[in-house]
Amino acid sequence: MSRPLSLDPALIEAAQTATAWPFEEARKLVERLKRTGKKEALFETGYGPSGLPHIGTFGEVARTSMVRHAFRVLTGDSIPTRLVAFSDDMDGLRKVPDNIPNKELVASALGKPLTQVPDPFGTHESFAHHNNARLREFLDAFGFDYEFKSATECYRSGVFDKALLTVLERYEAVMAIMLPSLREERQQSYSPFLPIHPKTGIVMQVAIDECKREAGTIVWRDPDTGERFETPVTGGHAKLQWKPDWAMRWVALGVDYEMAGKDLIDSVKLSGEIAKALGGQPPEGFNYELFLDEKGQKISKSKGNGLTIDEWLTYGTPDSLALFMFNKPREAKKLYFDVIPRQVDDYLTFLEKYSAQDSKARLMNPVWHIHSGEPPVPELVSSGGANQPGTTISFSMLLNLVAVANSEDPAVLWGFIRRYAPGVSPETHPRLDSLVKRAVRYFEDFVKPQKTYRLPDEVEASSLKRLSDVLASFESGERPATAETIQEEIYNVGRAEPRYQDLKAKGATPDRPGVSIEWFNTIYQVLLGEPRGPRFGSFVALYGVKETRALIAKALAGDLVREHEAFLKSRAA
RNA sequence: GAGCGCGUAGCUCAGCCGGUAGAGCAUCUGACUUUUAAUCAGAGGGUCCUGGGUUCGAGUCCCAGCGCGCUCACCA
To answer: Which nucleotide shows the minimum CA-to-C1' distance to residue A398?
Structure first.
C-alpha cells in the first residue's frame, strides 16, 4: 500500500508548472486519464527472469516510482495509483546462463517456460521462482511500493483470457502489423501464439495452420513428429510472442504508463499498434537512454559488462544510485566505478541545500524525487562544536583521508574525523559511518593499486632509522606522544641531515636551519607510497608510535615494496 | 538503412521560460605561530562544433551541415 502524502497546497501549486522530468511525464498521464476517464493510474515495469535482476531493472522501477510520486502530488493524491512489477516468467528458456550452478539440470529443461525449469540453486519451485524472489527481495530492500505479477499466474488463472480471445479474433490484424517488420523466411513461420506442447511442455515456435475462433483454439503441427494438435489460446495452454504479449498485457491489465529503453523503440511502436488493434490504448511512457560501460558499450546481462547493483552499493550509497537514475534519463551515461564518488557527493550537496529551498526549488531538487518528497535530515559536522553551522563531509574528502591515513581501519579514520569535528561518532552519524566504510572499500580496490612505494637511498634510510630511534623514546611513556611533540622531533631529525637543511625557510638561521620539503616527501613516498601526505606528527599520534616504527622497519627492509608488488600481482590474477 | 543522443575551460560536466558564460578536478598564488592538507581565501583559463534563420538580444529556439557515439533491423 502506498504511504499517505503530506500535501502542502503551495507544493501542489508549484507542481503544476514544475519542469523536472517526472512532472513532465506525470502531466502526460493526467491528460491521458482526462481522456479515458479512468479512475486509477496503473504503472508497469517489466522484468525477464532468465537471470538475476540487474541495474537496469532497478533504474526502471526507481524512475517509474518517481513519475508515480510526481503524479500523486500533481493530482493532490485524488486518483489512486498502482505499480505492477511484471515478471515475464512464462517465456521459454532459450539458453543456459553461464553464471549458475547445476547447468545440466537447467539444460534438461531448455525451451520450457521458465516457471517449469528446475531451480539450479535448489531453493525454489523453479528457476523463475528463484529469480522472482530475488527481484522482490531487492525491490523490498529499497522500499519500493509495488505489486508483483507473474505472467504464468496471469495466463493460468484466466486473467488474460478475454484479451487472448481478442487476439485470436483479430489474428489477421495482428499479423498485418507484425509481418512487415520481419524478414521473409521468418514471415513463413511467425505466429503471435506460442502453444505449449502438451507432451513435452516446450514453448513451441510454430506456424498456425488454423484459428478456430468459436472454439477459442489454434491448430498447429509438431515439426518433428508431424503430429497435429488443437490447443486453446486461453488458460495457460499458449502464450504470446513478446510484442503481441506486451500489447495484450497492456490491454488486459489496463496499463497507463510504462517506460522502456531506447533499444525497444521499434518494439514499443509495434506493440502500441497491436494494442490499438485490440481495442486498447498503448500506455504513456518514454524511452530512456541505455547505460554504457567504461568503453561506451551497452551494458547487458549476457555480456556481463558494466556495473551490478551490488558493485555500486559496495562503494556508493543506495541514494547515490537513485540520484544516478534520476539524472538525465534521456542521455546515455557511463555507468562505471569512477562515476560513483561524484554521485555520492552530488547527492550530499542536494540534500544539504534542500532544507533552505522553497517549494518550487524543492521540486527541482533530485532528493525530493528520490525520497518521495521526504528527504532525511542531512548529517552535518562542525569543527567548532555542536552549535556552529555544520557542513557535510564529502565522499571525496573521505577518499583523500583514507589514502593519506594509509589505514583500512574505519576506527582510525574516525580518529581523524573527530580531530576535525569533536563530538562526532558512528553513533551520532550512522550514514557518515556507512560512507566511511565505503570509502575504505573504494580505497582498497581503486586507490591502493595506484600507490607506488619506493626504496630509500642510503641517506634517506639513515634518517628514517634515526626517526624510528627518536620515536622509541615516546614508547616508554616518559614523554607524552602528542601530535606536536612528535612533529617537533620529526623536524629535528630532518634538520640534522644536510640534505634536508633549508636556509631559505622562514625563520631559518645558520644555527637552526629550516627543514626542506624533501624530508617529508621521502616519508610519504617510502612509508605511505603516496606523493603527498598528512601532517606526519598527527599521523603518528593517531596511527600509533609502535605501529609507525614497525612501518619504518618494514620500509627499510624493503618489505613495503615487496608486499605492494605481491598485492598488485594477486589482484591481476 | 532507420531511430536516439552528444559536441560549452586542460579533464569531467551544469546551464531553467532566450537576457553580462558556471561548478568540480587540475594549475598558480596566499593564509593557517617553520614548508606537510581532510582546510580556507583568491587568480588565471572558453571562437559555447560550423554556417544560416527568427529576435532588440541566441550556448539556449528553428533549418542545414560537420564530427563523435550508441541502438534497432534474429530473439526477448
So the answer is: B38
Q: Which pLDDT score is estimated for A386?
A: 46
Look at residue A469 in the predicted model and tell me its pLDDT.
86
CA of A342 to C1' of B28 (A): 25
Give the bridge partners for A212, in sequence order: A217
Q: Which residues contact A337 (CB under 8 A, 6 or more apart)?
A: A307, A311, A315, A445, A446
Q: Is the pLDDT of residue A146 over 90?
A: yes
Average pLDDT over residues A457-466: 86
A136 CA → B16 C1’, Å? 38
Tell me how far apart the alpha carbons of residues A328 and A308 are, in angstroms, rounded to a whole number: 20
Protein CA A240 to sugar C1' B72 (Å): 22
Label residue A9 by pLDDT band (50, 70, 90): confident
Q: Which nucleotide is nearest to A185 (CA to C1')?
A: B74
Q: Is this complex's ipTM strictly greater than 0.95? A: no
How many Å from the CA of A508 to C1' of B30?
Answer: 20
Report the alpha-carbon distance of residue A367 to residue A363 in Å, rounded: 9
10 Å Cβ neighbour count for A227? 12
The H-or-E segment that residue A239 falls in is strand A238-240
Distance (Å, rounded) from C-alpha A299 to C-alpha A315?
19
Closest nucleotide (C1' vs CA) to A381 is B38
Distances (CA, A) of A317 to A61, A340, A347, A401: 17, 9, 10, 18
The pLDDT of A249-272, averaged and rounded, is 91
Give the whole-angstrom CA distance, residue A65 versus residue A61: 6
Range among A56-60, A130-134, A316-320 with highest mean pLDDT value: A130-134
A156-167 residue pLDDT tens: 999 999 999 999
| pLDDT exceeds cutoff 50 at A17 | yes
Grid coordinates of A367:
532528493
Across chain A, what does the average pLDDT equal? 84
Please give the protein residue whose CA is closest to the C1' of the nucleotide B39.
A420
Residue with CA nearest B37 C1'? A534
CA distance A445 to A468: 30
- Nucleotides of strand B lying closer than 7 angstroms to a protein CB: 3-6, 12-14, 16-17, 24-25, 34-39, 69-76
Measure the CA–CA gap between A310 and A318, rounded to whole angstroms. Answer: 10
Interior angle at CA A185, CA A282 and CA A218, nearest 5:
60
Q: Of A370, A300, A371, which Cα lies nearest the Cα of A335?
A: A300
- Grid coordinates given for A214: 468459436
> How large is the average pLDDT for residues A23-36?
88
CA A27/CA A67 separation, integer angstroms? 9
Chain-centre distance for alpha carbon A333: 13
In the structure grid, which three cell numbers stand for residue A36, read together?
479515458
Percent of chain A with pLDDT over 90: 32
